[in-house]
Design brief:
By secondary structure, the protein is mostly helical.
Length: 314
């Protein structure tokens, strides 16, 4: 019964991913670089988590931290998270949204299985098995099914590239997919180092904000916060709050990983993403274009559930 509650929690947290992405996309449309939207999200998350830590567990972010742990424990999760976001920006322009999603999910499944099998970063052992492998393959098929089949997205841009260049970007996309499971696993280790869930989340957000600030200063030479849209109208306040959902996502990852394992955590989050993405499209939430639910996307959700059953219950 308890495992069911964790799975439901994972689905709910997974539903925050497309909400955060939609808000960040809206903010990115008003800024010179998508990095600015990410920086605002990380900064807001850092401030909120700092306040919560100071109220709930001030020792957790001060004397309670065990600095005997390797440096990667404190900065690795943030680097992986920022790296995945930056990689997605590049890959989307080179391969299109559909191909990028498929290959990065493939990378997530591969590393998730390895983390579970070899108990990397202290993750409880979940050895490789036929059923777990089948579940991961089903997950990849589900993601492939739900992606758009628009020629412009899948073929036109790729046809302009040389074959060797295509292979290079695909390989890089799979490698980029390695980053989210590594981020989750390292942040789980960070929780042990700080002795605090909230302290680990704060450090992850704070380090991520610093990394993004450095990237913005390198690429743009200055930091500019978008305040008005193209028509000189004030941007709505809700466009800036994507970082709040990021807090739930990061802390949820840290909570669920030791219980579900890396592969199942990734899969349950993806299921939540699919469900919320359907709702966003169906009702045109966040001022996005309405799209009716089709049988292909429903089938993808069913396949994802089957994949989770293979990984966690068979």
């Amino acid at each position: 019964m308890q495992i069911i509650l964790y799975l439901i929690m994972g689905i709910i947290i997974g539903m925050f991913f497309p909400i955060q992405a939609s808000i960040s996309a809206r903010l990115s449309s008003h800024s010179k670089t998508p990095l600015t939207a990410a920086f605002i999200a990380f900064s807001l998350g850092s401030v909120i988590l700092l306040i919560i830590n100071l109220i709930v567990d001030p020792i957790g972010i001060s004397v309670g931290i065990d600095f005997s742990y390797p440096l990667y424990v404190f900065i690795g999760g943030a680097i992986a998270g920022v790296g995945f976001n930056v990689a997605n920006i590049i890959l989307f322009s080179k391969l299109g949204a559909s191909v990028t999603t498929i290959i990065t999910v493939t990378g997530q499944m591969i590393v998730g299985i390895l983390i579970d099998h070899f108990e990397w970063f202290g993750v409880p052992a979940n050895p490789i098995s036929i059923t777990r492998s089948i579940g991961a393959i089903i997950m990849i098929l589900a993601i492939s099914l739900v992606q758009s089949k628009k020629k412009k997205d899948l073929t036109m841009e790729l046809e302009e590239e040389k074959k060797s260049s295509k292979i290079t970007w695909v390989i890089l996309g799979v490698l980029a997919g390695f980053l989210p499971p590594l981020q989750t696993a390292i942040n789980g280790k960070l929780r042990v180092a700080t002795g605090s869930l909230l302290g680990a989340a704060f450090i992850s957000f704070f380090v991520g904000a610093i990394i993004l600030l450095i990237l913005i200063l390198i690429t743009q030479r200055r930091l500019e916060f978008p305040m008005y849209d193209a028509e000189k109208k004030r941007i709505p306040v809700w466009v800036y709050i994507g970082g709040i959902f990021g807090i739930f996502i990061v802390t949820g990852n840290i909570i669920l990983l030791p219980v579900l394992g890396s592969v199942a955590t990734t899969m349950i989050f993806l299921l939540g993403q699919m469900i919320m993405a359907l709702a966003i499209d169906q009702f045109g939430m966040f001022n996005l274009q309405k799209r009716k639910i089709d049988n292909r996307r429903i089938a993808a959700i069913v396949l994802t559930i089957i994949g989770i059953i293979f990984v966690k219950f068979l």
